Protein: ABC transporter substrate-binding protein
Amino acid sequence: MKKPALTLAAVLALPALTTGCFSGGAGGADGADGSGDQRLRLAMLQPPRSGLSPLSDDAFKLSRWSTAETLVELDDAGDPRPGLATSWEQTAPREWRLELREDVVFHDGTPMDADAVAGALQAAVDASPVPRILDGFSLDVATDGDDAVVLTTGEVDPLLPARLSSPQLAVLAPAAYDGDGPVDPVGTGTGPFELVASDGTAGATLDRFDDYWGEPAAAAGIDVSYVPDGTARGAALRTGEADVVEAVPVSQQAGIDPDLLHEVAMPRTNTLYLNTDRGPFADPAVRAAAREALDPARIVADVYEGSADEATGLLGPALPWAAPLREGGSWAATVGGRVEPATPAEVDGAPITLGTFTDRAELPEVAVLLEQQLEDAGFEVTQDVREYQFIESDAIDGAFDAFLLSRATVLDSGDPVAYLASDFGCEGSFNLSQLCDPAVDAAVEEAARTPAGDERRAAIIAAEAELLATDAAIPLLHERVSQGEAAGVRGALRDPRERELVDSGTRVER
Structure:
């Protein structure tokens, strides 16, 4: 097994080290097989929070490295396409049959068959907490011979194929699920790169998998460093210490060759979540006062230097259908509850705690402006800013009166319903606002039942309207993310859904 890559923070602290020292892995910069193929060096935004378990948000790292794969993938338009399953058929209102790809082997050499796939899906169904994509969702899994599985849902689910594209439902070898500990992705995926070492919150090492079922990887491997500090990520790109860099902060871009920066419009909304369960924001009128106090345009101009879009809702320009539906009012016919927010209260010295995290470099700056704007409206603000891994559990538990979050809105299935249910449903697993509102739940459930297409999109905007009327979440802006790519990088993926970064065709020429 290879020695894990040296952390990027250590590299940046030692100027005398050469670029090759960053490469890690037994094969070094020239590749494990001596062919001269280069290894890719990635500087990732956040370290794992759950030991790279595919049943957590860490699954998106495994997906971005092309080591763990799903039965279904999404095309650029968000429609399902074959992955480890070659086809699927709805055989009954609640039943789907999926044919599995032949000749797929896991990285540990075991074949992928129906039993392995069913075991992986069952592990997700049985997990506690359940993966977000299965939050409130019933799924029974059965095999149909050696090369097909049959999935039965508790209710009719028109989006099951898209749901199966979530990286949290990646299929790993049976060995990954052995024992009572966390799911172990090391050496158990199916992708073109095999995860051979994971060094906690420092980095990870992947090698090309020569028995991959698809196009073999052009790069010899991948050396990953987790670099939460935005200044360090910018420096890694500027100095050539990394080949592909996630989320280069606006504040670091002035000193970087613009040809190395690639802006991607993201389905990611910078949102202020207000605690509806306790404290001052339990009062809808006080939440309305906070909404009226905020000036998103100033945040876009001062912090993002214009490289963001002021929010008019939770769903931004990366979902081009949302704004026309919202502006046209076609959602109104499906709304059965309240869509008008409360009248703002007068605020005089109400103390509130405002939390956010440092991993996205702009958020602490945004928090400073929010503090100023809220204090101008009569609130007394105390900030709590930490790395995300050290603040997430407190945020989920409702420890803050307000929490500023950069949130992906279609991360799981390419459809916003899962995000709305997770973040704003009474039983939602990521309900930072602690919201439990029957009208919101009913609107989200209606959207979930509606078949794909224009009718479903209108129902989604109706649910958004119900949610915004509570002022439990105040959308501020929609982010555009700048991805850094060194001059020799070819074929890096610029994915708005943040599922893909490196694939078989990605390579670097030094």
